[in-house]
Amino acid sequence: MSFFSRVREDLAVARLRDPAARSKVEVLLGYSGLHALWMHHLTHAMWQREGLRLPARLLSQLTRFATGVEIHPGAVIGRRVFIDHGMGVVIGETARVGNDVLIYHGVTLGGIGPIAGPRHPSIGDNVLLGAGAKLLGPITIGEGSAVGANAVVLIDAPPHSLVVGVPATVRPRTPSA
């Protein structure tokens, strides 16, 4: 997919997901979550090339400074992901985010210590991550799930789950949830 095709797709997703988005120009110029994702695509490509990891990391830190969204260049992010009001979002190095994921402000996809291998969450397709949610460790959130605002998630959730509380508990997600 070309860069411009991806930009058009992301603009359409932002307008679909955010009822406050009035125009493509407004989204293009004023949505820091999209700016962070676009820069992540660049830094991730750099991260995968020999000798470019340090520049990728430094550029990701400049992006964090400019947008308030920190995405490690090693993280794998799917298509049509939308970060709404992105300030304070942190996505760790081994995190994996599926397609069509909606992430609100203050979400952390973080690690729990210096363990070998994947140490950050894997998020399935069509997942909603509520404001302030903290997902920690090498856990998996199944497709179609929703994580409630300020939940602290330390366990896996099967597909179509509702994950809420501190510490979070998992229950089936009904169509209205």
Automatic annotation (TrEMBL):
Metabolic or biological pathway = Amino-acid biosynthesis; L-cysteine biosynthesis; L-cysteine from L-serine: step 1/2
**Cellular component terms per the entry's GO annotation:** cytoplasm
What domain of life is recorded for the organism? Bacteria
- A molecular-function term among this protein's GO annotations: serine O-acetyltransferase activity
Q: Which EC class heads this enzyme's classification?
A: transferase
Its GO biological process annotations read: cysteine biosynthetic process from serine
One Pfam entry name? Hexapep
The keyword Transferase belongs to this UniProt entry's keyword annotation: yes
Its UniProt entry gives the catalysed reaction(s) as: L-serine + acetyl-CoA = O-acetyl-L-serine + CoA
Record protein name field: Serine acetyltransferase
Per the UniProt entry, what species is this protein from, by scientific name?
Subtercola vilae
Task: Please state the gene responsible for encoding this protein.
Answer: cysE
